[in-house]
Structures are given as C-alpha cells and as structure tokens.
Amino acid sequence: MRKRANFSPAQSRSARGLLDWDRAQLARAAGLKLEAVELYERGRRDLSETEREALGAALNEAGVCAIPERAAGEGVRWRQRSNSRTLPAERFQLIRDRVTGTAAAERLGLVRRRADG
How would DSSP label each residue in 93-106? Predict the structure, then answer.
C-alpha cells in the first residue's frame, strides 16, 4: 500500500477551500479537536504523527490529495478517479453525511428523525 502524503498547514487550508469545508468540518471528519486544526493551520502547533495521518486520511477520503513540494511545487488537487463502484455524487453525499452528522437513512426516509430535545 502506498504511503499517503502528509498535508502541510498551507495544503490543509487549500484542501478545505477545494472542498468548501470550514475547520470544524475538517476536525470532525478527521476526529480531531477544532483547536488542534486551527493551531496547526496557523503554524502555531505541530500535529502528532497519528493526528497528521487522521487529517490526511480525512482529506484523501474526501477526494483531495497533497502534491509534495518536490513534485512541482507544494499544492493540492482532486484525487484521480478510481474503479470505485460508488458514483462521485453518492460518495460526496456519504462524506457530507459523515461530516455534518446527517444520517443517510434519515435522508432517505428509512428511519424517523429524532426530535430535538
């Protein structure tokens, strides 16, 4: 299995822009604290290896990959399409549901929405 590239603070900000995510959405998708993402992107804190892997995995799963500086200058881009059976729109919806907490089953009417407290 190929090692995923780590996202620098600038690449993390750029990837969020590509996805139209705010820091809270990225933190939720990566399972990190919002403060950790904020400080990392501002260059005030480094992430542990585990946190960097979680951040990279969340962005990769959302379809964005990091371009290493040695390649042609640091950046981000959409990941190339794979032979996945999930259509891009369905994949995006599944990721959005995960980030926003909306259950796909609720959206499809398979279960009732919980009444707000």
Answer: HHHHHHHH---HHH
